Amino acid sequence: MVNLKGQHIYLRALEPEDLEFIYGIENDTALWSLSDTLTPYSRFNLRQYLENAQQDIFEAKQLRLAICIMDDTTIGLIDVFDFDVKNKRAGIGILIKDEAKRSKGYGKEALELLVSYCFKTLHLHQVYANISESNLASLKLFESNGFKKIGLKADWRFDGQQFSNEFMLQLINE
């Protein structure tokens, strides 16, 4: 298995103690557009989610990991979703919660670790990401990790007032 520890961060399974961190993310309306969330989550529902978060990726078809800096502070989440064993592919999403922790290389390192895990441990052939055309920081992050834009989905997202485009990016394990 690949090591989920980098030089500045490490990835770990979710713990019950992550409840307030996840609650803060899932109920931050400014972040809802990133995940297609439309309603707030209760602590009760998130506690149930955390109790089931240890499900095997082959059963749940997804995996969410905490991104932690070396002093054990949780700074974000990184996800594998739409895990497709037959076609050997999955989607990846990432969020660094605190803006002050962004653009410091933590996201890049977390993405590198997760991609390595997907290719070396899960034996995936490809990973992909769906990123809003206006999310320049995420586009730069994924492209700097070797992802290529393979398509633009026109008018893909509606924010209640207007439609916006979304890129699909892909990285194939050569």
UniProtKB/TrEMBL annotation:
Q: Where is the signal peptide?
A: none
- N-acetyltransferase domain segment(s): 9-170
Q: Name one Pfam family in it.
A: Acetyltransf_3
Q: Which domain of life is it from?
A: Bacteria
Q: Could you identify this protein by its name? A: GNAT family N-acetyltransferase
Origin organism is Winogradskyella aquimaris
